[in-house]
Amino acid sequence: MAEKSLRVQQNNKTFFGKITKTLTKILIPTKVGINGIIISVKRNNLIKAFENYNNTETNDTTKQETLSKKYEDMYALYLESIDRYIMDSIYNKVKTENATDFEKNALSDYYTIIQLKDTQYLEYKYRKQKYLIELDYESINQNKEKLIEKYKKFYSSKMENLYKGILKNYSIQLADSKTTNQSKDEIYNKIFDTLEEYITEILPIKIENQTETNYDEIVEEYEKFNAFLAGKLDNVDIIKKKLALLAISRKLFTHSLPLIVAEQCYVQLLKQTRKIMIEETQQSKKEFAFNMLMDLIEEYNVKLLSTKIYWDKPAQREEYKKFWDEFCQIARMKDKDEKEYEAKREILFVKNDLKALLKNEKKYNPIIKFYKERLVKLGVLRQIPNKCKTIDKKFEKKKIIAK
To answer: Greatest CA span in the chain, whole angstroms?
Structure first.
């Protein structure tokens, strides 16, 4: 695809600059018209090739490969024509100060993607394709009602593949031993942003066209996610939204976002929720964050760890088996006695999480203290009153939590 240096410069300060600007304004409409025709032709060829490739049932490998190659060739030519439109039309409009806000933003987004080429080539490759297709989709959606239905089938199919490629690339980056903790935090945010973008923009189209076969399995998680799209979200709500995104991802992006990466994302959410608990000063909000943590631990165990086959250490697997068996026994109480179920569930989760946090007691001391107080209230730990004589020979009472 054609690529140039896209520097926007003021060119109207001299007499010749003013003439150039005037001539460009006259020529731009012609270029726009020609580019529009070229894009339309390439788009029609692409849709035809896409339909032939997807709808032709044949056992002839050679014929299938021919159809596939034709589709890929038409796709490359189509993207090139849109890229040319940006170079010849939008760039010149911005340069001559004759562009709409949409066109200015489009060019700004284009710059951002181009900058990825030297540092993150795979992400650049997927995001540039995604950007070009989105640009044309917006144009069709506003102006060509008859064409949009045919185009949507190609659009939803191709965009799903591009999103999978982007997520897989992030998974690879997380697995890279050279990736710093700060960079990993950025990647986690990118993963959640990409998931949200896909579920908001692409999934509804796939559902509308009945191309999402797993929709019945994700409807509950999809409704949970939709509940967070309206209104301002606090820190705990943001965690809940990310949790809903992860639940959907386990159905739609099993290979692009493998189990080990999903596990890292869950662990990241656990860290963020604990951090909220540490930083929160109001007791009511701290309790709210704690309840969120309990729900998060449950989802982490039910939707991920319970399905985990490979463990780094056999001892960890055996320890988890005991925890899981105990949780399954407690879960049976839910319909019979919900209060007892909630209490036993909390005790199990707190004791299990406490074991992990005590390995880094200094960092998590506020949460450890909070956990122990919860266990005292639930009757699992006891507070032992203690008296000690101070220097001035007075007695001071202290409460010691028995471990």
So the answer is: 97
The domain of 21 spans: 1-143
User: Tokens in use for 78?
Assistant: 């189509």
Q: How far apart are the first and last CA of the chain?
A: 67
- Distance, in Å, from the CA atom of 44 to the CA atom of 344, rounded to the nearest integer, reads 62
**Secondary structure of residue 399 in the 3-state scheme:** strand
Out of 25-34, 147-156, 188-197, 204-213, give the one with best mean pLDDT: 188-197
Q: Is 65 contained in some domain?
A: yes
| Whether 85 contacts 35, CB under 8 Å | yes
Alpha-carbon span 376 to 282, nearest angstrom: 20
Q: Which residue, 257, 278, 306, sits at the end of a domain?
A: 306
In a domain, 16, yes or no: yes
Q: What angle do CA 84, 87, 92 make, to 5 degrees?
A: 135
Give burial (CB, 10 Å; 0-12/13-18/19+) of 278: middle
Question: Residue 10: which region, alpha, beta or left (left: phi > 0; alpha: psi -120 to 50)?
Answer: beta
Burial class (CB in 10 A: 0-12, 13-18, 19+), 109: middle
Cβ(118)–Cβ(102) below 8 Å: no
Mean pLDDT value across residues 244-272: 92
Spatial contact of 256 and 171, defined as CB atoms under 8 Å apart: yes
Residue with tokens 């010849």: 88
Do 131 and 109 contact (CB within 8 A), yes or no? yes
Total number of domains in the chain: 2
Q: Are residues 183 and 266 in the same domain?
A: yes
* Residue position matching structure tokens 């639940």: 247
Write phi, then psi, for 210 (nearest 5 degrees): 55, 40
3-state secondary structure of 63: helix
pLDDT tens-digit readout, 223-240: 888 888 877 888 899 999
Query: Whole-angstrom Cα distance, residue 28 to residue 194?
Result: 35
Alpha carbons 290 and 353: distance in angstroms, whole number: 12
Using an 8 Å Cβ cutoff, are 133 and 140 in contact?
no
The number of helices, as runs of H, and strands, as runs of E, in the chain is: 15, 2
Half-sphere exposure (Cβ direction) of 128: Cα atoms closer than 13 Å: 21
Total-model pTM: 0.81
